[in-house]
Amino acid sequence: MLWNFKPHARAYRYVGHKDVVTSVQFSPHGNLLASASRDRTVRLWIPDKRGKFSEFKAHTAPVRSVDFSADGQFLATASEDKSIKVWSMYRQRFLYSLYRHTHWVRCAKFSPDGRLIVSCSEDKTIKIWDTTNKQCVNNFSDSVGFANFVDFNPSGTCIASAGSDQTVKVWDVRVNKLLQHYQVHSGGVNCISFHPSGDYLITASSDGTLKILDLLEGRLIYTLQGHTGPVFTVSFSKGGELFASGGADTQVLLWRTNFDELHCKGLTKRNLKRLHFDSPPHLLDIYPRTPHPHEEKVETVEINPKLEVIDLQISTPPVMDILSFDSTTTVSILEQRLTLTEDKLKDCLENQQKLFSAVQQKS
Hints:
Blueprint: E1 11-15, E2 21-26, E3 33-37, E4 41-45, E5 53-57, E6 63-68, E7 74-79, E8 83-88, E9 93-99, E10 105-110, E11 116-121, E12 125-130, E13 135-141, E14 147-152, E15 158-163, E16 168-172, E17 177-182, E18 189-194, E19 200-205, E20 209-214, E21 219-225, E22 231-236, E23 242-247, E24 252-256, H1 261-272, E25 293-294, E26 301-303, E27 319-323, H2 327-362
Parallel strand pairs: 1-27, 17-25, 21-26
Antiparallel strand pairs: 2-3, 3-4, 4-5, 6-7, 7-8, 8-9, 10-11, 11-12, 12-13, 14-15, 15-16, 16-17, 18-19, 19-20, 20-21, 22-23, 23-24
């Protein structure tokens, strides 16, 4: 579904997948919307009222995640068929597969410079792939749980994982070292999102809460309550001034941050200068640089927005269904339209012949 932030504005619902939709993402330029589904397909939608789409079929099992490269030229898809596949957006065709996982792949993400892909699987490993030679160049393993979600920080020097064992871990991919280890949730962690500055990380958990971690100080600073069940997904906006969360309570909540916007812009520029994988470790990337276990005893600010936000479920916005059809359906509809057109042409010709005959008789 495509929503407008204005109350009562029309929302668009794109109908086409034949099973649960597991992941959606906008392209960097916002001109495409990618969706993954348990129906084993990936679709690319043009996010307007026409909703034109392309369908990719290459996986042999449900697709769990989609991710565009930062330049929008490539799309990575992760599937329960134990593979990651990379697609060209320019030609809209399949390029190559990455095989090394031995169980379902839950998530695959490009690094900010597009040189690497990080993936996580139910085989309890996180793998780093080189997109140039298509090889696995690094491997992080866990003996307890598996990662549900994984992503690079904005500078591309670290990755963070959301664990089924209720933990959040941050690794330095250059020195292959665990930097931080957070134990702040009482349920599995389903999703994470880095603030564009790289200084904060937000987490979504099955314990019904969202938590914001200050990575520079290595501590939990906010616990956010609002969902009435497991929270499955969370994501910062491009500028970091907003983030959205979605949960099992069928709600999407939109949140506004209180982070310093100017500070954020300065840090983003700083991070963009250090996107090179070969650059030496830098203290400003993330601090402290030693593993920090965090217990629930840490004092945090708890926020429950229930009484302060507009509930758009009461005033349901008008929804426009945009239907897409498979090729056979499309062909049959076209055939029906052609038949109708032919019938109309025949009627017109018959009417013209009758009119011509009548004119001839009068003359």
